[in-house]
Amino acid sequence: SQSASPRQSGEVYIGGAVANPGIYFLKEGDTMQALLSDAGVEPNANLSHIKIYIPREGESSLPQKVDLNRADSWLLQVLPGIGKVTAQKIVDYRNENGPFRQIEDLLQVKGIGQGTFDKIKDYITVSD
What we know:
The protein is of the alpha+beta class. It has four helices and four strands. It is elongated, with a radius of gyration of 18 Å.
């Protein structure tokens, strides 16, 4: 006997090796392939290892990543360990040196060490 599949609805966060990370709205009949196509899987993506996380009722969902090249000071302050002063240093660094090329460039900002970087690396991204 075939068991009924669960009703599909809600939101799916897709991140990692995709061109358009973010939240996608899941509709009845959507396939994983369709969602990945919408997200724009990058050529170097390892599709043999895809994580699916289903939160419990009331549990907060995965956060959107903060773009170091676009975020204003107030948004950078939502990151763990980043206060008003450090957030402004990130903005100043970006204004003086141009956009961050990779998230590790954040370590060049005065006041951000490896410990702080390790706390926020899963919450940040860089755009072109």
